[in-house]
């Protein structure tokens, strides 16, 4: 795929966004030694469901918004023409199918406000749960309440994702690695921002201890974004010009906590917290496993990115099959809705 820079003033951040998009679509940057952990679980099959498949209800609520299915199109991109096209396609399918959607980091739009249109999808998707996005570490680099409010307002977002990416920043050439005192700044932001704050990793997972600290700071929800999917160490290693950074990307390519472990860890300290499971989910069966383990929503990025880059038809087909896979799992466990799936305790750890 050829990524064309947006026809406005370029920036280092914009070039990096274009690189990320190209590498994630065209290169093999998936985890290899670590899975998302969901393969270690299987459902007990119910041969007599006693329900009508056509009446199965996948609807749910998250942060006050109604969703037709427990699916989040996870945060991916923005800042280039190709990213704008992808975001537009993703927003359209989210609106049509009642899904949630996050956008990629909006830092590039803060640096160059002319690029904010590459993220703007509210006109296409007026009813969806829409999530703004900024790297939490930017709070240590002259970003604060004003910038966060600005990107929320630009997007007309329902909540703000603060993504946590210490490993990615270490591998990224000239990455922002000053995380000192960041939790206190997250707490201040949670107290003052006009929308809820969601804490999210980018593919290396959130532990119970880190989750507890973030909850104490006031985050409204957590997205565990565990290991097992796209490795941002690999992504940054591939785009690095420096030999040391490329070596770091290889060394830490499989670093992180598997998604399934993260779900259980966060639930152990926060039984009721709104929880998103993402990180290497590739089909509706894995979505259902994540829900059964305790997640409220399941986020997928790479499958939606690949489909949206291909065509609107591919995106429609992917969404249709994901919903069919989730529905089939509920049917074959005798669950009429998501709550029954959670309550049935039909998910077993594989010996």
From TrEMBL:
UniProt-annotated binding residues for Mg(2+): 169
Keyword presence, Magnesium: yes
Molecular function in Gene Ontology: isopentenyl-diphosphate delta-isomerase activity
One Pfam assignment: FMN_dh
Keywords: Cytoplasm, Flavoprotein, FMN, Isomerase, Isoprene biosynthesis, Magnesium, Metal-binding, NADP
Binding site for substrate: 16-17, 105-107, 168
Binding residues annotated for FMN, in chain numbering: 74-77, 105, 133, 200, 230, 280-282, 301-302
Domain of life (superkingdom): Bacteria
Reactions catalysed, as given in the entry: isopentenyl diphosphate = dimethylallyl diphosphate
Keyword DNA-binding: no
Co-factor requirement: NADPH; FMN; Mg(2+)
Domain FMN-dependent dehydrogenase, residue spans: 16-106, 169-344
EC code: 5.3.3.2
Major subcellular location class: cytoplasm
Subcellular locations according to the entry: Cytoplasm
Entries under HAMAP family matching the protein: Idi_2
Subunit architecture: Homooctamer. Dimer of tetramers.
Biological function: Involved in the biosynthesis of isoprenoids. Catalyzes the 1,3-allylic rearrangement of the homoallylic substrate isopentenyl (IPP) to its allylic isomer, dimethylallyl diphosphate (DMAPP).
Recorded family membership: Belongs to the IPP isomerase type 2 family.
Protein name: Isopentenyl-diphosphate delta-isomerase
Organism: Almyronema epifaneia S1
Gene behind the chain: fni
């Amino acid at each position: 795929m050829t990524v064309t820079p947006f026809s406005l003033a370029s920036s280092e951040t914009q070039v990096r966004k274009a690189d990320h998009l190209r590498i994630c679509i065209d290169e093999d940057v998936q985890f290899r030694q670590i899975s998302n952990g969901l393969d270690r679980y299987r459902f007990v099959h119910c041969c007599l469901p006693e329900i009508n498949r056509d009446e199965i209800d996948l609807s749910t609520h998250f942060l006050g918004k109604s969703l037709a299915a427990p699916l989040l199109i996870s945060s991916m991109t923005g800042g280039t023409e190709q990213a704008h096209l992808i975001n537009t396609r993703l927003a359209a399918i989210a609106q049509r199918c009642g899904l949630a959607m996050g956008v990629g980091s909006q830092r590039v739009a803060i640096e160059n406000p002319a690029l904010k249109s590459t993220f703007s999808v509210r006109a296409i998707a007026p009813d969806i749960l829409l999530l703004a996005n900024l790297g939490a570490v930017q709070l240590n680099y002259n970003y604060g309440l004003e910038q966060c409010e600005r990107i929320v307002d630009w997007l007309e977002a329902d909540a703000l994702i603060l993504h946590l990416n210490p490993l990615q920043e270490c591998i990224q050439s000239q990455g922002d690695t000053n995380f000192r005192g960041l939790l206190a700044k997250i707490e201040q932001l949670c107290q003052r921002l006009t929308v809820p704050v969601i804490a999210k990793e980018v593919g290396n997972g959130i532990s119970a201890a880190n989750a507890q600290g973030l909850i104490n700071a006031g985050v409204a929800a957590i997205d565990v974004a565990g290991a097992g999917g796209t490795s941002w160490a690999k992504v940054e290693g591939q785009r690095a010009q420096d030999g040391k950074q490329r070596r770091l990307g290889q060394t830490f390519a499989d670093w992180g906590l598997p998604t399934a472990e993260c779900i259980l860890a966060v639930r152990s300290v926060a039984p009721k917290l709104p929880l998103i499971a993402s990180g290497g989910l590739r089909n509706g069966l894995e979505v259902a496993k994540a829900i059964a383990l305790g997640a409220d929503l399941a986020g997928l990025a790479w499958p939606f990115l690949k489909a949206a880059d291909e065509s609107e038809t591919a995106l429609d087909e992917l969404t249709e099959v994901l919903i069919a896979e989730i529905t089939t799992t509920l049917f074959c466990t005798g669950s009429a809705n998501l709550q029954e799936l959670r309550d049935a305790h039909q998910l077993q750890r594989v010996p």
